[in-house]
Structures are given as structure tokens and as C-alpha cells.
Write a structure and sequence with these properties.
Layout (H helix, E strand, L loop, with lengths): L1 E5 L3 H13 L7 E5 H4 L2 H5 L1 H5 L13 H10 L7 H13 L12 H23 L3 E5 L2 E7 L7 H11 L5 E4 L3 E5 L4 E5 L13 H11 L7 H7 L14 H26 L13 H8 L25 E5 L4 H6 L6 H13 L6 E5 L6 E4 L2 E4 L4 H18 L3 E5 L1 H8 L6 H4 L3 E2 L7 E4 L2 H5 L7 H13 L4
Parallel strand pairs: 1-2, 4-5, 8-9, 8-12, 12-14
Antiparallel strand pairs: 3-4, 5-6, 6-7, 10-11, 13-14
Helix pairs in contact: 5-7, 7-8, 14-19
Length: about 475
Amino acid sequence: MNELFFDGTFVGWKRAARGALVRGVDPAQARWIDARSAQTEFMLANLESVAGTEGDAPGVFRVPREFMTLSGCVSCHRDESRWTRLYRLLWRLTHGEPHLLEGAIDAEVSELNAMAKAVRRDEHKMHAFVRFREITTATGAWFVAWFEPQHLIVELAAPFFADRFAAMRWSILTPDRCAHWDGKALTFAEGADRSAAPTQDAAEDLWRTYYASIFNPARVKIGAMTKEMPRHYWKNLPEAALIPQLLAESAGRTAVMVAASEERVERATDFSAAAVPVTDDVGLLRDAAASCRACPLWRRATCTVFGEGPVRPRVVVVGEQPGDQEDRVGKPFVGPAGLLFNRALVAAGVERAELYVTNAVKHFKWEPRGKLRLHQKPNAREIAACRPWLEAELRALKPALILCLGATAAQAVLGSKEVRVLSDRGQLFPTEFGAPALITVHPSSLLRMAAGGDPEAAFALFVEDLKKLRG
């Protein structure tokens, strides 16, 4: 039996394994001994002379890159047989089975892959379940965490924390190894006792409040939860103390959420036929639309934004819906998109005063974002609920041409979802209103143009579409 001493590290094992290969040590005759565990100072001091070094080895051994990745991961497993297993696999790769890792189902390879998977999972859990607590030192704040990994993963997992928390100084203590980051360098030390780590800090209550706020009782599956957050981690997680209470309250909280959801659905389905008077008087239509309740959008809108312009226009312009500014003043196309539209009309040689301007949807649909009201695209039911008003406008106005700005307007005018603005722009389409529809982009799309686009070219193309109104 050949006793192979090394320093217990993966690097040390690689050096010793290479020396053993050079000397032809059969895996069945190899006994791997961690000199640190053996507490043999003489052995530690003479490891290179006992096991040999890469520089001493005259032979050249090539192994697949996959083996180095696999062995590096398996070396962190807590199974004491890992070094023997890895050497046996290395021997096979260098003695007639160079393609052992390439797809073939081999029992030994499968076992090592399972060990590597367990290590990677443990590393992932360490990334997720380490909780730092602040302490005060002579040099300022330091953050300390206690963690009990399943495997020997501290040195494998620590670079993640150095990258994620580079601006703070921290230590992660475990029974096996400790990692320390001083803001500049990552160092490691021997394992520590649980008593060396703080048990709470000033941010503890804040963390519990945050966890309670994101806990979704309607999606609780205890089996899945304990699989992702195994119970042996709970004792070191501040939020874990809340879990039994949150689970006990989940049924009641779910009932409240369901009731709120049903209320939202009830409001969302609050649709009725629009009370559109039979008239060719646009003024009467505008007055009637002011009290429209055909869809739920009126609830959050400031007012109904009806069309505006001459009563016998040659062209009717149809947009999507009013925006924030339009909703405040009650007039269409007065916000940023309207100003851009005006500029494009001037460039195209078209007078806006000669156009009747309206929208497919007459109420502003929005969502709050701080103090802002952000535009939301109207859905098909909301567009359909408002279409009778657009139909009444077009039949009363009897234009020679309808200009559709964007997909919503085109779909509302043509009554079809098959419209493709970018491919159909600049073309004329027949409508049920006795006037053809000309399709182009909505000016707001030019305002939202992503970085890397050419806004000047897009504006010029928009102007070319508008020049067709002059005829």
C-alpha cells in the first residue's frame, strides 16, 4: 500500500496525484492521507519530497478540461473518499479511457457528478442564506455572518460575496473555514465557534419586516419551500422565526387577496353599451361623451377628451388615447407627442387647423409611478367599448381621408387586428366610413425611440407620410 500525503487542499492533491501517476501508483494501492488531519508536522514540512512535484515529473499527462472542473468541485465535498475516487478517475482517463467523461454512462462518473451537484447546490444556498450583522470595531463598522455549510465550500463561495459586497468589510464564519474581506483583499482562516458571531443587530427588525411584506400566502407550498430553504438553515436566518406565524395566517391573508382580486375583476368587467346619440352634430356628441361610462377607464380619468377641429374637415386624424397633459386640459394632442406632431405637420406643409384630431379611446388609461401618471396601452375591450364614439364622429364629419397614427388607431378604424404599422405605413386602406385610411406611426413612438436608433431619419420618414395629406 502506497501512503500518499498531501496538505488537504485541491492544489496539494493535484501535485501529489501527478507524482503518483509518474511513479505508476495503482489506485487500488493508493492510500490518501491528509497530513493536516494526521497532525504530522514532519509530513507537512516534507510533502514535496514524499509526493513529488510537478517540476520533478518527467511525464506529460493530458486530461479533459471537464475533469478539472469536476474534480475542483468534488474536492469541496465532505465525503472523505473523494480523493481516492478522483485519483481512480484520473488513472482511468490517463490509462486507456481518455473519453470517459464524454456521454457514456459510467457508475463512478455518475457518483462524482452527483457529489459535484451537491457542492454546487450548497454553494448556491450559501449565497442565498448568509445574513450579515453589523458590529463596531476600533476601525469602524464590520459585518459578520455565521453559516453552517453542508460541504467545504467557503473558499469556493467567498469570491461571490467579495464581488457583491465589495464596499463593506465583512467576515463569514463557519465551523470549517472563515473568510474575511477588508475592502481590498480576501483572506481565509481556520474555522470558528458559533459564539464568535453576533446573534442580532439594529437591522434585524427591518429585515423581518421586509420578509413579511414579500411573503405571498397564496403561493405557499410547504414542500417546495422547505426544499428551497431546508430547515437546517432556519436557525441562522432572522426571518425564519416568522415562518410558523406567516403560515398560520396564510389562509386568512389568502382570502383577503382573493376578495380584492374579485373586486378588481368586477371593476374590469364593468362594461356596457355606449349611449351614443343619433346625430350629425359633433357638439352634441361631445356633450354626450362627457358622461360616458361604457368602460372602467372613466373612473381614473380627469375628463373625457373628445375630438377637436373643423366640422367639415378634409382629414380626420385618429390617435390612440389622451395622455397626461391631454387628460388635464381636456384637449387632444397637446402633450409631448402632440408637439412633435405639430412640428412634423409644419415640415410637411400641412395646417393643423384644417385637421380634425381625435383618439380611438377617449379616456386616459394610466398607472401611478411615484408622483407620475404613466401611460398604459388600452386593451381590446376598452377600444371596442369606445369605438361607437369614433364611428359617430367619422359618420358626422364625413372626411375625405382618415389618418391613423399607430396600431390602436388603425385597428379601431379598420375593425381589424391584422394591421402592421411598419409594413402598412404610407398605404391606403378602404373603410366602412366612405373614406380611405392612411396608416403611419404614432409620434410618441419617435419620442420612445431606443438608443442606437436614428431619430432624425425616423422623423423625416414620418414627415413624408404626412405630406400625402396635402393632396
